Amino acid sequence: MDALFTAADTALRTLFAKPRAAQPCPTLPDRPTELTPEEKRRAAGLMRVNHVGEVCAQALYTAQALATPNAALRAHFTKACIEETDHLAWTAQRLEELGARPSILNPLWYAGAFGLGLLAGRLGDPVSLGFVVETEKQVGAHLQSHLDAAHGGLPENDHASRAIVVQMHDDEIRHADDALSAGAMDLPQPVKKMMRAAAKVMTTVANRI
């Protein structure tokens, strides 16, 4: 019952409360960000996508913590969820600075990610951890693409957003490594492809709404 209350509390805080980071937002104070209206629009779309990713991360880790019977693994998922709250807060703050709003579909993204996390957790701890590894690797690659300004990524002079994305990328890769060390299994290729396809839909839609 306590776990259910915790899951409900996390959902409400993620979707309806202002997130608070435990770590300061990465900044480059000696490199001020000045953007044209078009650059601001592009940066806002990408940071909205990243914010949605963090909404989904809260859902995934919360569901996986709820599903596992392993107390140590539950603590592992809970710790990762808390760390991802920093990313949620940073991206929300950057959206506000850009004069943009989060995705209006965040409740839908959260529900879908929670369902996937719960399913992965019910399939056993190695599968659940494998899901974390693949998710974080895909997120890491996605964040890396945001640093490629020449191919639709964040503008080169958007130092504020780029600093956040760099730190997020490093943290996501660390989470993948931690899950691998904890006993993750390598997911089948068809599952990985389906995950990439679902992520593509999410990022395309979230960039706009």
List the SSEs and their pairings.
Layout: H1 2-16, H2 37-67, H3 71-97, H4 106-122, H5 125-145, H6 159-181, H7 189-208
Helix pairs in contact: 1-2, 2-3, 2-4, 2-5, 2-7, 3-6, 4-5, 5-6
Number of strand segments: 0
Average pLDDT number:
91
Low-pLDDT windows of residues: none
Indicate the structural class: mainly alpha
| Apparent shape | globular
- DSSP helical segment count: 7
Largest sheet: none
Radius of gyration, taken over Cα atoms and rounded to an integer in Å: 17 Å
Q: Spell the H/E element sequence.
A: HHHHHHH
Distance between the termini: 35 Å
Beta-strand percentage range? under 5%
Q: What is the helix fraction of residues, given as a range?
A: over 70%
Describe the structure.
It is a single chain. The chain has 209 residues and is mainly α. Helix content is 74%, strand content 0%. The protein contains seven helices and no strands. Helix 2 packs across helix 7. The longest helix has 31 residues, at 37-67. The termini are far apart. The model has no long low-confidence stretch (mean pLDDT 91).
Short description:
74% of the residues lie in helices and 0% in strands.
Features:
7 helices; 209 residues; mainly alpha
